[in-house]
Amino acid sequence: MVLSRLLKVGFELCKNWPSCYFHPRLKLFLTVYVDDFKLSGPAKALAQGWSLIKAAVKIEDPAPAGRYLGCE
Fold this sequence. Notes:
alpha+beta
C-alpha cells in the first residue's frame, strides 16, 4: 500500500534494496522501516520531498534524525 502511494508521487523502488526508494527528479533517497521514514538528498529538495510523501502517506512532521535501527 505504501509502495503504490510513493510510486504515484514520483518515487521509484530501488532494485534489490527492499524498502528503499529514489526520486529521480529531486535526487532524494528514502528508506521506510515500519513507520520510520528517513529522507536524504539535496537540502533544497527535502521540503518538497516531504510534501510529496505527506500527500501520499499519513505521517507526522519530520524531525531531526535520531536513533534508527538501534543506532544513533
